[in-house]
Amino acid sequence: MTSDPKGFDNDQEPEVPDAGTTPESPSDGARAAEGGADTPPAEGGTPTGETSDPADTGEQDPEAAAAAAAAREAGLTAQLDQVRTALNERTLDLQRLQAEFQNYRRRVERDRVAVKEIAIANLLTELLPVLDDIGRARDHGELVGGFKQVAESLETVAAKLGLMQFGKEGEPFDPTIHEALMHSYSPDVKETTCVQILQPGYRIGERTIRPARVGVAEPQPGSPAGETSAGESPAGDSADGGSGEKENGGPDEG
């Protein structure tokens, strides 16, 4: 008769682990015990022995935040001042350019008008002798027929180009527009006066292309101009002379 091994019960079957489970080893239990210390604390908690950093949690000191905001504002203000200064400089540059352009336009327009007047004046200056001949022919009654029509057409074209004639008898002498070719004295004038038009003057706008050639008369020397009329002076002189003769003749007869 065989005896059962010691420590084994025939009625007790050994435990066999399931196929889906893994036997837990002592080393696994140790790891679990050690890992318990590294388990993160509950929500809102802080691990034991550690302090929170305001910089890590997003919280800052109010004074530091205010200083940072002030510095940022100062930087933006400086940039804004620079932009405004640059804008003012560009605005002044633009205004200067506009003023220079306006001056340029006025100068070009003035030069254009001057060049046009010079060109027309040069052309009409060559025609002045022809116009003088036409004037003399008209004065002598020789401007008739087809020649009269041609002469009038030429004068019309010259007038359209701006040619104007000046110089009349009886107007005061002006050395800027008159050229005196003859000189005389007359008791009929109170100032230097044009008494004869030898050649009319011509101008284009304010530009004189030929002065009027005239004969002038001045008041007689020694007589105050304008105080007595022309007819009163001879009469007065004759009256004085007659009385003088009577006065002188009285004693002789006596």
From TrEMBL:
GO biological process: protein folding
Cytoplasm listed as a keyword: yes
Subcellular location: Cytoplasm
Coiled-coil regions listed: 80-114
Bias type Basic and acidic residues, positions: 243-254
Keywords, ordered alphabetically: Chaperone, Coiled coil, Cytoplasm, Stress response
Chain segments annotated as transmembrane: none
GO MF annotation list: adenyl-nucleotide exchange factor activity; protein homodimerization activity; protein-folding chaperone binding; unfolded protein binding
Stretches for region Disordered: 1-73, 212-254
Record text on subunit structure and interactions: Homodimer.
Membership in a protein family: Belongs to the GrpE family.
Protein name: Protein GrpE
Organism of origin: Streptomyces calidiresistens
Gene that this sequence comes from: grpE
